[in-house]
Structures are given as structure tokens and as C-alpha cells.
Design brief:
binds 1-deoxy-D-xylulose-5-phosphate; 7-stranded parallel β-sheet; binds manganese (II) ion; globular; 382 residues; binds NADPH dihydro-nicotinamide-adenine-dinucleotide phosphate; NADP; manganese; 4-stranded mixed β-sheet; 1-deoxy-D-xylulose 5-phosphate reductoisomerase; manganese ion binding; Rossmann fold
Length: 382
């Protein structure tokens, strides 16, 4: 029986993780769950999965939860709650909260010797070196949930990593694929949230529309697979059937294909190194799959992808700035305080203004994240 804690159980990845677990009730025990605002859903999850402990945003939410519950469960609160919950007895922590909120709980869970199933890519974007050094020191498994990185992990299996010549990350291109800057000036929040292939949380969906999601995934791949950024390519593949590829020194390319369903990479991370069938998964039917197409990303229009490569090359706290500026710019866009194209402009401006710190400590990262966000908020929140 694997004991599991899910951070962000009420989100898109969190709910799908619980769906996967329902398929193998005899293999997994849910020890802890966390929500932020969605107490109604957390209450239902507590009734169904019977965790020992949960964490919520604050005391108000905890009181709301107590009113909803008729069973005994320990309730933790705030960012401290997320840090404390990962100390409970468990084998695996699924990190499915969004943004930098995942950083300290992930670091704490690794320090406690727990394996991690990582959906939250922001943790590696903001503090990749620190997290991976700790993974090595503690000798834990950090398993990717992100579909592209799960694909790469599968394409690497049984091969010599020294013989890899390139990682090729696929990108859907998002809802604005084929558009030019001029077309994007007045796009609405709803248009940006209309992802062609995946149903995900709002923040990652906007990141997909700007192509920052792919930039983050390049950084995530560098840390997960210990490969330099000039060997990580992005190709737009609008069908999202090939989830990523690995090219080897003999010119062979190995790809992982599946329908666009996050329950597939989630089950792979939970059951690794084996695989399992999940009820309700659609299998690919190649007699119906008419086309697999590819095109170069338009870096002129979708500047965020170039900014991510640039930040990665500079290193240090520059990727922290990339992440922090993106987090707040996306939130400003979702709240209709800025236009879509300003997301990239704000990130670029923040990177230009930053005095980079090479080899930052965790405290440096947390301070830079805070400073960048405060500066942007002051300028754009009216
Ligand atoms: N969705 C997907 O298909 C994919 C997602 N990812 C990554 O996985 C992570 C989660 O994404 P997704 O599930 O889509 O996001 P959602 O917005 O759907 O879910 C986010 C979860 O985190 C909780 N949460 C939000 N803010 C905070 C906070 N400040 N502190 C603590 N908990 C918080 C939410 O709680 P509540 O709802 O209760 O308010 C919810 O449980 C992201 O990092 C994303 O990039 C990666 C690949 C694919
Ligand atoms: C499902 C998943 O892993 C997302 O990160 C997905 O890749 C987003 O699609 P884009 O390729 O449009 O960024
Ligand atoms: Mn992805």
C-alpha cells in the first residue's frame, strides 16, 4: 500500500489524480489532501478518501470545513499548513498546487525523504538547481507528471542517456496558433482560456496561450534530465498526440503517443516503473487519426518562449524573475488589468531590471520572487 499526500487535490491535476487512485484503491492510501478555496469539493473528497489530515487557505476556510464535516480530520492552515502536511507519514507527495506555493512544501517533502510526483513545473523554473541538488542528496525519486516530461522519461527508458542528441518538446501552439502580434492586441480572457486540446487550470491555460508554458517546460526538462538548453527544441504539433520525443546520436527518434488525457501521465508517475489501465481512457485509433503535423514556433509573436530560453542561459535568479513576473502578469490579465500582449512585456521589463544572483539560496529566491511581484503589482494594480 503506497501512502499518498496530494497538494492541490481540488484542482485539475488533483481531481484527476484521485480519479486514477480510485482505479487502484487496494494499492494506495490517501494520507493528506489540500485545497485553497474550494471547501465544498474538499469536503466531498474527505468523505470519499478518508485522509488523516488536510490543509486549507486560512482559519476562515478551516471553520467552513468544520461546519461541513461529520468526521474527525486534522485541519492545517496557511502556507505553514502545506509545509507541515508533507511531514506526515507518506511514501509519495503529489505536488499539484499552482505557482511558487509549491516550492517550500516540495523542498520540505524531499528533505523528509519522500518521493515526489511533480505536476507543478514552477518549482523547477524558480529553483531547479536547489531542488535537484536536494533530490540527489536525499536519493529520492522525482517523477514528472507534466505530459511532455512523462513522455521523455518513457522515451529514455532502456537507452543510454549519454547517447541522447536532443529532446524535442511538442507544443499545441495554444488557442492563438497562427496569429500575429496585431491579431493578439485585443484578445479577451475567454479567448485565451479556450485551449484547443487540454482542459486545465486557468494559470497554465494562459501560459499555453503565450507559449510561456513551453518555455517553462524547456527549463523543467533541463533540470529533470540534466541536459543543456541548446539540446532542447520545441516544435509545434497542433494535434497533441505526440507528447514529446527523444533524438539519439544515430538519428533515431523515439516518441510517446497517446490521447490528450492527463490521467495517463498521472498513472505512470503513481505506478512507476509499471503501467496500469485506467477506466475511461480513450485509446488512439490510427485509422481515425488523419494527420500528425509539425511547424516551427513563431518566436516573434510568442516572445515568452524566447524569454524563457534567455533566462535559462543567464541562470541564477533570472528564471525566478521569469516565473514571478509571469505569475503576477497572468493574474493581472485574468483580472482584466492588463492586455494579453502586456504579459510578455512585463516579464521582459522585469528581466531587464533585475540584478542577477548566481547560485542563489532558497531565501534569495523567495526574496526575489516577492520583490518582483510587489514591483509589478505597484505599477499595474489600480
Ligand atoms: N492541469 C493540467 O493538465 C496540467 C497542470 N500542470 C501543472 O500542475 C499544477 C496545477 O495545475 P492545475 O491543476 O491545472 O491548476 P488548478 O488551478 O486547477 O488547481 C490548483 C490547485 O492548487 C490550489 N491552490 C491554488 N493556489 C494555491 C495557493 N496559493 N496555495 C495553496 N494551494 C493553492 C487550488 O485550490 P482551490 O481550487 O481549492 O482554490 C487547487 O487545488 C500547475 O503548476 C500546472 O502548471 C502541468 C501539466 C498539466
Ligand atoms: C497537459 C500538459 O502537459 C500541458 O502542459 C500541455 O502541454 C499544455 O499544452 P501546450 O502544449 O499548449 O502548452
Ligand atoms: Mn505540459
Amino acid at each position: 500500500m503506497k501512502k499518498i499526500i496530494i497538494l492541490g487535490s481540488t484542482g485539475s491535476i488533483g481531481t484527476q489524480t484521485l480519479e486514477v487512485i480510485k482505479n487502484f484503491k487496494e494499492n494506495f492510501e490517501i494520507v493528506g489532501l489540500t485545497a485553497y478555496n474550494n471547501i465544498e469539493l474538499l469536503s466531498k473528497q474527505i468523505k470519499e478518501f478518508n485522509p488523516k489530515v488536510v490543509a486549507v487557505k486560512d482559519e476562515d476556510k478551516a471553520n467552513q470545513l468544520r461546519e461541513n464535516l461529520n468526521k474527525n480530520v486534522e485541519i492545517l492552515t496557511g502556507s505553514k499548513g502545506l509545509q507541515e502536511i508533507v511531514k506526515y507519514d507518506a511514501d509519495l507527495v503529489v505536488v499539484a498546487v499552482e505557482g511558487i506555493a509549491g516550492l517550500i512544501p516540495t523542498v520540505t517533502a524531499i528533505q523528509m525523504g519522500k518521493d515526489i510526483a511533480l505536476a507543478n513545473k514552477e518549482v523547477l523554473v524558480t529553483a531547479g538547481q536547489i531542488v535537484m541538488d536536494l533530490v540527489k542528496k536525499k536519493d529520492i525519486s522525482l517523477l514528472p507528471v507534466d505530459s511532455e516530461h512523462s513522455a521523455i522519461l518513457q522515451c529514455l527508458r532502456g537507452n543510454d542517456t549519454k547517447q541522447v542528441s536532443r529532446l524535442i518538446l511538442t507544443a499545441s501552439g495554444g488557442p492563438f496558433r497562427g496569429k500575429k502580434k496585431e491579431d493578439l492586441r485585443k484578445v479577451t480572457v475567454n479567448e485565451a482560456l479556450n485551449h484547443p486540446n487540454w482542459k486545465m487550470g486557468k494559470k497554465i491555460t494562459i501560459d499555453s496561450a503565450t507559449l510561456m508554458n513551453k518555455g517553462f517546460e524547456v527549463i523543467e526538462a533541463k533540470w529533470l534530465f540534466d541536459i543543456s538548453e541548446d539540446k532542447i527544441d520545441v516544435i509545434v504539433h497542433p494535434q497533441s498526440i505526440i507528447h514529446s520525443m527523444v533524438e539519439y546520436i544515430d538519428g533515431s527518434v523515439i516518441a510517446q503517443l497517446a490521447t490528450a488525457d492527463m490521467r495517463i501521465p498521472i498513472q505512470y508517475a503513481l505506478n512507476y516503473p509499471t503501467r496500469n489501465y485506467i477506466n475511461g481512457i480513450n485509446f488512439l485509433d490510427f485509422s481515425l487519426t488523419t494527420q500528425l503535423t509539425f511547424e516551427k514556433p513563431d518566436l516573434e509573436t510568442f516572445k515568452c518562449l524566447s524569454l524563457a530560453y534567455e533566462a535559462l542561459k543567464i541562470g541564477g535568479t533570472m528564471t525566478t524573475v521569469l516565473n514571478a513576473a509571469d505569475e503576477i502578469a497572468v493574474s493581472l490579465f485574468l483580472n482584466k488589468k492588463i492586455e494579453f500582449l502586456q504579459i510578455a512585456e512585463i516579464i521582459e521589463e522585469s528581466m531587464k531590471e533585475h540584478n542577477n544572483i548566481q547560485n542563489p539560496t532558497l531565501d534569495d529566491i523567495i526574496n526575489v520572487d516577492k520583490e518582483v511581484k510587489e514591483k509589478i503589482a505597484k505599477k499595474y494594480m489600480r
